[in-house]
Design a protein that fits this description.
This protein is α+β, with helices and mostly antiparallel strands and 169 residues long. Helices cover 32% and strands 29% of the residues. The chain has a 7-stranded mixed β-sheet with strand order 1-2-3-4-5-7-6, with helices on both faces. InterPro entries: Acyl_CoA_acyltransferase (IPR016181), GNAT_dom (IPR000182), N-acetyltransferase (IPR051531). This is GNAT family N-acetyltransferase. Pfam families: Acetyltransf_3 (PF13302).
C-alpha cells in the first residue's frame, strides 16, 4: 500500500472518481443495490449509482440515515465505506467495497478503523456487519478490527463494540 488511508465524505467532487473505480474494478452487484437496468455498467446503472450515493449526502441524520465515505489511498479513490443507522440506539451497520487493485493490501482494515473512529465520534456504541462465509476478504478485515463473528446458516454476522480495546496491528 502506498500512502496513508483516509476517508472523505462522498460528494460531487469525488463521486465521478468513485464511479470510475467501480466501473473499472468491481461488479455492479458488489457496489450498489440491484436496479432494473441492462447487465453490466449500462448508462442507466451508472445513473443509479450516482443517485444511490447522492441520496446519502445528508449523512446519518438525513432520510437514508447513511454516511458514505470515499476510501482514499495514495491520494486516489480506491473504494467506498459506509455506515447506516440501525433501529437500535447507537448502532450502525457498516458496508464496504474496494476496487480489485486495492484488495489484499491492508486498505480495508485501515478504512474500517477510520470508520470506527468516526462512528465513535458520532456517539455510536456498536458497529455491525453482515456478509457471507465465502467473503474471506470481508471476514479478515472484520476480524483484524476486533469483530466478534457469528455464523447463522448462509450468513456471518459481525459485531464490534466501540468501548472495547482494538486489537494490536
Amino acid at each position: 500500500m502506498t500512502g496513508a488511508v483516509r476517508l472523505e465524505p462522498v460528494d460531487e467532487q469525488n463521486l465521478e472518481p468513485l464511479l470510475s473505480v467501480a466501473v473499472a474494478e468491481a461488479e455492479p452487484a458488489d457496489v450498489m443495490p440491484p436496479v432494473a437496468a441492462p447487465a453490466g455498467w449500462s448508462h442507466a446503472r451508472r445513473e443509479a449509482f450516482r443517485e444511490f450515493h447522492r441520496a446519502s449526502f445528508g449523512g446519518l441524520d438525513a432520510a437514508t440515515r447513511t454516511a458514505m465515505y470515499a476510501i482514499m489511498a495514495g491520494g486516489e479513490v480506491v473504494g467506498m465505506i459506509r455506515m447506516t443507522r440501525r433501529d437500535e440506539p447507537d448502532v450502525v451497520e457498516v458496508g464496504m467495497w474496494l476496487g480489485r487493485s486495492a484488495r489484499g493490501q491492508g486498505i480495508g482494515a485501515a478504512a474500517l478503523r477510520e470508520l470506527l473512529n468516526l462512528a465513535a465520534a458520532a456517539g455510536m456504541r456498536v458497529v455491525v456487519a453482515d456478509t457471507t462465509p465465502e467473503n474471506r476478504g470481508a471476514l479478515s478485515v472484520l476480524e483484524k478490527c476486533g469483530a466478534k463473528l457469528r455464523e447463522d446458516d448462509d450468513r456471518v454476522h459481525a459485531e464490534i463494540h466501540l468501548d472495547a480495546t482494538p486489537p494490536a496491528l
